[in-house]
């Protein structure tokens, strides 16, 4: 019996750039050691890496936000999962881009990474989004900090599936929480029009919502999506929805997928420890074939699931 090489590995990556995008959002570009090319060249949008941040220093005291002062002192024993927002495996080297939000002790330490520093990571992990052959239209739905894997997916769809028309729906609490996007304002128009550059550069029509109405539609991204689906009534056989964001948003998107009979894939988040299916800390309750339920693992069976296989609670 031939043993197939493992599809994931542990690698060293050097920091090319770690740039702030507003107060809490950062774009981290990492160049992986050459050995990683064979593992990452076939990685798909939706997969992720687990980064070891245990050796990283904290920022100086005055740069630690008050709300993280206590938790910042915790030891970081576990690696942290991050989706790729982009992978470039050309020219015999692999560069991955991670978009992260500073939320706690690990991401606070990641802020201190500078060009030339190295980190250790495991990847590529989990499964990615599937792109069925017959689809003519893809709807991307990003809520809160759920944009990174969808930014990557948008690039893949544009490059490899030019015949698929893409529309994006992006929601946040306020305009300032529109995470990870370089927001461009069209100053030529009388009423300023916000363009999310990372989708606009691929000519992807994007609808924005904010809970407080500070940009775009006032309300939840799923309300805006429901309105558009009601107006356009896309054919379910030709359309697919891809969503990533908070669980409540994914659950509402899954309900719309059922109502409008459009297949939908969701990228779920769970607190993860091992990232490779050993510790069982990332369980997702799913339907089994006999109408009962079964627990799958977000790190190994996911993070991407079909919306109708998940039991939403
Ligand atoms: C598959 C996957 C992909 C991810 N991709 C990204 C990404 O591209 N960019 C990004 O910024 N973050 C991403 N995350 C979340 C990221 O892993 C966490 O924000 C990070 O681990 C926080 O570490 P911390 O020590 O800074 O904060 P912690 O102290 O660990 O967490 C701070 C707060 O965030 C909550 N939190 C932490 N992790 C999660 C999680 N997985 N789901 C829900 N709440 C959580 C905690 O409950 C706590 O309230 C991803 C998570 C998963 C599972
Ligand atoms: S994180 Fe350990 S099994 Fe998923």
What structural keywords apply?
313 residues, alpha/beta, Elongation Factor Tu (Ef-tu), domain 3, Rossmann fold, 2 domains, 7-stranded antiparallel beta sheet, 7-stranded mixed beta sheet, 18 strands, 17% helix, binds flavin-adenine dinucleotide, binds FE2/S2 (inorganic) cluster
Structural domains: how many = 2
- Share of helical residues: 10-25%
Structural class: alpha/beta
CATH topology of the largest domain: Rossmann fold
Beta content comes to: 25-35%
Number of strands: 18
Number of helices: 6
Low-confidence stretches: 1-6
Would you identify the CATH architecture of the largest domain? Answer: 3-Layer(aba) Sandwich
Distance from first to last alpha carbon: 43 Å
What is the average of the pLDDT values?
A: 89
Measured on Cα atoms, how large is the radius of gyration? Answer: 20 Å
Bound compounds, each kind once, are: flavin-adenine dinucleotide, FE2/S2 (inorganic) cluster
The CATH fourth-level homologous superfamily of the largest domain: Nucleotide-binding domain of ferredoxin-NADP reductase (FNR) module
> Largest sheet at a glance?
7 strands, antiparallel
Strand order of the largest sheet: 4-3-7-1-2-6-5
Shape: globular
Order of helices and strands: EEHEEEEHEEHEEEHEEHEHEEEE
At the first level of CATH, the class of the largest domain is: Alpha Beta
Describe the secondary structure blueprint for this structure.
Layout: E1 9-20, E2 25-32, H1 37-40, E3 48-52, E4 80-83, E5 86-88, E6 94-101, H2 105-110, E7 118-125, E8 137-143, H3 147-160, E9 165-172, E10 183-186, E11 193-196, H4 197-200, E12 205-210, E13 217-218, H5 221-232, E14 239-244, H6 247-259, E15 264-267, E16 283-287, E17 293-297, E18 304-306
Parallel strand pairs: 8-9, 8-14, 9-12, 12-13, 14-15
Antiparallel strand pairs: 1-2, 1-7, 2-6, 3-4, 3-7, 5-6, 10-11, 15-18, 16-17
Helix pairs in contact: 5-6
The protein binds flavin-adenine dinucleotide and FE2/S2 (inorganic) cluster.
């Amino acid at each position: 019996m031939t043993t197939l090489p493992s599809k994931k590995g542990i690698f060293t990556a050097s920091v090319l750039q770690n740039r702030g995008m507003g107060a809490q959002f950062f774009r981290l570009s990492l160049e992986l050691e050459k050995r990683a090319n064979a593992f990452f060249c076939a990685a798909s949008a939706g997969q992720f890496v687990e980064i070891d941040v245990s050796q990283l220093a904290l920022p100086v005291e005055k740069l630690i936000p008050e709300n993280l002062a206590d938790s910042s002192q915790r030891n970081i024993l576990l690696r942290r999962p991050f989706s790729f927002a982009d992978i470039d495996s050309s020219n015999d080297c692999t560069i991955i881009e991670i978009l992260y939000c500073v939320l706690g002790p690990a991401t606070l330490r990641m802020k201190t990474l500078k060009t030339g520093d190295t980190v250790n990571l495991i990847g590529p992990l989990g499964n990615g989004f599937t792109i069925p052959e017959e689809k003519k239209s893809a709807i991307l739905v990003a809520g809160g900090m759920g944009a990174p894997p969808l930014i990557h997916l948008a690039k893949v769809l544009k490059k490899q599936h030019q015949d698929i028309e893409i529309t994006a729906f992006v929601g946040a609490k306020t305009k300032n929480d529109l995470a990870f996007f370089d927001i461009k304002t069209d100053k030529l128009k009388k009423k300023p029009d916000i363009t999310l550059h990372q989708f606009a550069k691929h000519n992807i029509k994007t609808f924005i919502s904010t809970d407080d109405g500070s940009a775009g539609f006032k309300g939840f991204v799923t309300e805006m999506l429901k309105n558009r689906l009601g107006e356009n009534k896309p054919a379910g056989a030709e359309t697919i929805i891809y969503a990533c964001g908070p669980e409540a948003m994914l659950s509402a998107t899954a309900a719309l997928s059922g109502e409008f009979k459009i297949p939908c894939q969701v990228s779920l988040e769970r607190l993860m420890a091992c990232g490779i299916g050993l510790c069982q800390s990332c369980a997702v309750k799913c339907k089994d074939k006999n109408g009962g339920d079964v627990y799958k693992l977000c790190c190994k069976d996911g993070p991407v699931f079909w919306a109708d296989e998940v039991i939403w609670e």
